[in-house]
From TrEMBL:
GO terms for molecular function: metalloendopeptidase activity. Residues 91-145 are annotated as: Disordered. Transmembrane segments: none annotated. It comes from Abyssibacter profundi. This is LysM domain-containing protein. One of its GO terms (cellular component) is cell outer membrane.
Amino acid sequence: MGVPGIDRNWLAVLALGLTLLLAGCASAVRWDAPASGFAGKTYTVRSGDTLYSIAFRHQLDYRQLAQWNGIGRSYLIKPGQVLKLYASGSSPAPASGSTVARSPKPRPSSTPPARPATTTPTPRPRPAPTPRASKPALGSGQWDWPVRGPILRSYSERSKGIDIGGAVGTPIRAAAAGTVVYAGSALKGYGLLVIIKHSDAELSAYGHNRRVRVKEGQQVAKGETLAEMGLGPSKQPLLHFEIRHNGKPVNPVGLLPKS
């Protein structure tokens, strides 16, 4: 039975329009992750920073940091430059509780599927080999104490190095030959700091100095004076000394001479 006063053809057109509208809305429902959900951590270069000091601050390998940001072997950076502290393509998974609309399941077809044509499989490209961790270039017996004195604080995951006591002004010497890659006070918690690059994998750091006697880019010999001992956070004379391998702290005591 029809509805009085309403044309049947008009009702059919109205029903069809509503069906298409609802279908279009359903297909448009999707979840887009916010940009912040996939953004990795970045660091904005400040005056006085070097690539080595930034990598040191975040316990990263400076070579990886350079690779992630397309920086050449010169490792030059400039203030205001934004550096990614993560590899491209490494993004966190969507937050829990987020819903992602699924595509509607295809309806079964009464037509039998066509047989696939015989084709030669395309060889998949092999992934680039992961570089192996380099072996320490400097082992036990190749390091020397940067200063002689009592160990005021032992190595731990928190300290990342050792604190060696002494007197203000005591010469601080290079524990091994290398190149000065940082000299400054931009790293919080280290005071006036010197970082020496000994090989592609090894760095050493000398913190809480009163005065620095070397410049960035300078070649230094083992035992050469780098700085003068200053005061630590508790106003006690000390040197904070670290050794890093591939950006990660290692216990210096295991590499330094026993006597």
